[in-house]
Amino acid sequence: MTRSTGFFVHRALERVSAGAAAIALTFFALVSVDARAADTQAPASVKVAYSEVALNSPAGAAEVYLKIKHAARKVCDVYTGARTLQTQIAVNKCMDIAVSDAVLKIDRPRLTTLHAADSRNLG
Length: 123
Fold this sequence. Notes:
By secondary structure, the protein is mostly helical. The chain has helices at residues 3-28, 58-75, 85-106, 109-122; strands spanning 30-36, 45-51.
């Protein structure tokens, strides 16, 4: 192989590597979604990072759904101590809205199906 041919092969490999990296970044890019509280004041939010690829498998979608629910618990202040029935109802409503909004915003079939099944189980 001559020196000029070696240079062209090297440049071609660089282009292929750059293209593969661009494709990988497209598929593995982390996207985030806000889980927001239903509040009259400035709504709290927690970013939930997930991979678009994760939503293609049932296990990955379940993991993203758990992340959304965990973020909603933080936003809706589920981890505080004792509360009145009225406060508990408000927290539950906040959770429902935050999770539903996040699932709607992501708009992926596996995640929507998980949320629908979870909502039916909660009544």
